[in-house]
Amino acid sequence: MTARADPPAAGAPLSLAQEVARARRRRRRAFLRRLFGHPSFLIGFVILVLFALTALLADWLAPYGPTRIHFRAILAPPSADHWLGTDGFGRDVLSRIIYGTRVSLRIGLFVVLFTGIIGTILGTLASYVRWLDALIMRGLDGLMAFPGVLLAIALAAALGPSEMNAIIALTVTFTPRTARIVRASVIVVQQMQYIEAARAVGAGHGRIVFRYILANSLSPLIVQLTFVFAVSIIAEAILSFLGVGPPPPAPSLGNIIADGRTYIQEAWWITVFPGVVIAVAVLGLNLMGDGLRDVIDPRQRSNRGGDH
Amino acid sequence: MTAFLVRRLLSAIPVLFVVTLVTFLIMWLVPGDITAEIAGPDATAAELAAIRERLGLDRPIWVRALAWYGDLLRGDLGYSYLLNRPVVDAVIERLPVTLSLTALALALATVMGMLLGILAAVRHNTILDQGAMVTALVGLSIPDFWLGVVFIILFGVWLGWLPTGGFVPLSEDPVGWARTMALPAFTLALTQMGVIARMTRSTMLDVLGQDYIRTARAKGMKRHTVIFRHGLRNAMIPIITVIGVITGVLLSGAVVIETVFSLPGVGRLIIGAIQRRDFPIIQGGLLVTACVFVFVNIVVDMLYAWFDPRVRNDR
């Protein structure tokens, strides 16, 4: 972005740079107004902020420590002392859920970050370096041939259960589709006249790629990454449920549900509540993604294909 | 059409190559001595040496890769020392359960999703439309395995309507089979019907805005004839694409949900193998499931070409 110029006095002549900066600011403000005026995006954004605050303020919000054992309240149903009941070790389910949001959020953020970076590199290389295109794309096609999160399950099983390995497994699983999306939008941008113009005035490859191509093909990537975030939260829960996610006793939304499965006959609350939290968080991200796409690309209104 | 099929089959070769390569490399990612894990806890030193010899773990990785491909071409996916039988047999035996669960869920998701989508499109911008789309989005946001557990609590533990797990083969007792498959299939379908509903709605809205729809209505055709014969038929292609995509999701969802409902499919085989660290089974299960999905994608593309002649002539 260009440096912000101070607003000039009324009537004073503007330099070209000031004009451009002013137009940019106006466009950005209009974009944000449209975005936050979109009901889905706004609702989703509020949900995500609440979710993030819960994770950040867990130490203050949680009534008890996440691994503290209450011997007199083993498998206790929801009550004034334990709003969402306790689990088989007498641990407070509400506190575990509050701390569990940290793991989900952390995994989601890292998967989004790595998927975004690697997807952008692969997608740009494939579209910009012609001889690499077929090689990269066939590789990605191969990875996408593993249905859903099955590859992530197998990878996490091979690497061993840990948070880092879950992040690696999910990144490998979600990068191919992201790279494809980047490639598709880079190919469109590459054919724009301003790229030809940049080349004509002698801009180097680096400048063309970073300053012009990537800057102009980011929006589909951002929409995609919102959905990757949503799917990562569900996928973490699946990995933990199957015992190949972040290991206990530290709580994650997924492994609380896995704990609850042993007690479905006598303690439904262990299973039900963390799942509701996952569903609400994922719904928030899906709403945000839908809103973002509507605002960025009004032609493609809400016909998202499933991608987890 | 034949030329298209041949081209499509040829394009599956590099995909299958990557799939097999990745499956091979997964074993190589396992930290530590894999031999002990494969052989099980009470293997003797001689057995360990025999397995290491058989897997060629002392040889360089490219030799092992060649051996892996050699075995694959002969239809050999390795040997499970923990189950004491060839991997191929164990996986193939479990495949029908997973496939029938996926197919059942796909059928349910398609029917429910398309009905919801058509309803929303026809009643565009009404409460019905918004309700359908909210339902679709909520379904998409629910983790399917969790929904499965909740259904077990609700219908199995509290209401006692359906068994909480277990499996009856179709050949022995069709009613019992349906009772054990209904809940898992419905669970999977509920979370994925939203994808189909959203796609159906948006393409139906596009199609219903076309001139020929107005013409058909203007010449006095019945409303539902126009919607189904003129509208839906032309909206099918994007819907088929989505059906192809969610088949993959359902296939991997089936793998997880089998564990929840204790169905003896490939999924429970893989998950059990993960807990026992039986890597040949994990590899074999992963590979076979991926091959099924590659095959499904070919079928989807053929359907595509069948619905839209432009596709088969274009490429």
Describe the structure.
Chain A is mainly α and 308 residues long. Chain A has 12 helices and no strands. Chain A starts with 15 loop residues before the first helix and ends in a 12-residue tail after the last helix. Chain B is an all-alpha fold and 315 residues long. Chain B has 13 helices and 2 strands. Chain B has helices at 2-29, 34-39, 45-55, 61-73, 87-122, 127-141, 144-158, 174-208, 211-218, 223-261, 266-276, 279-307, 309-314; strands spanning 79-80, 85-86. Chain B has a two-stranded antiparallel sheet. In chain B, a hairpin with a 4-residue loop joins β1 and β2. The model of chain B has no long low-confidence stretch (mean pLDDT 84). The chains are: A mainly alpha (308), B mainly alpha (315). At the A-B interface, α5, α6, α10, α11 and α12 of A face α1, α6, α7, α8 and α10 of B.
Sequence stretches where pLDDT stays below 50 over 5 or more residues of chain B: none
Sequence of secondary-structure elements of chain B: HHHHEEHHHHHHHHH
Q: How helix-rich are the residues of chain A, as a percent range?
A: 55-70%
The helix/strand class of chain A is: mainly alpha
User: Which oligomeric state applies?
Assistant: heterodimer
Strand content of chain A: under 5%
Distance between the termini of chain B: 12 Å
